[in-house]
Please model this.
Amino acid sequence: MSVSRSHRLFDLMQVLRRHRGTVPGLTLARELGVSLRTIRRDIVTLQAMGADIDGEPGVGYILQPGFLLPPLSFTEEEIQALVAGAQWVTRHTDDALAHAVQNALAKIGGVLPPDLRRGLDDNTFFVGRSEKGSSVVDLAQVRRAMREQRKISITHKDRSGAVAERTIWPIMLGFIDSQRFIAGWCELQGDFRIFRADHVMTVSFLDDHYPGNRRQLVKEWRAQEKHPCRQRDCV
Model:
């Protein structure tokens, strides 16, 4: 099977997953930039591979859950990108993320064909390890707070040395060189702010949920400024 067709089959599966309901063949054809005849032929191919796709021409198609497409669409460069990304996460973030990314690579390696599996051990790239600054902040807990949209109470020392207690709504983590940052809405300032993790003196993870949607808050922050990390916002 050609690589281009393998990619198209993978993309077709992704479109079916994204819609989660019956999708007309013409819609699939438009999204993938192919003919309706090609879509019908590819649906038959996926069904022969074991994909549980219900539907028929003129009505539409729906993918039932539970089918994983074999890793036909991984190229050598995509494998290298995964390895380089995993190295960066392992050496620049926290232990929980490092463990997670190694688990993810192991899962990918378990389903790759032998000729591609060797790429996971390729030493084409080297990502240096940065010295992480000392901090009382558990970044794994911060990520959990972001997922659950919970507030965090911190005692923070700004660049001038002033100390203040703040309640923030965490929306994003930043990793720049050896520094770690928490971006969020600061109730004290009534605005978005970026806090250096090594300037946080104490931290408490609250049960209170913050209003709105975290992703929407990120959009509002980015729309507010051309460059979200304004010098005056980094405290």
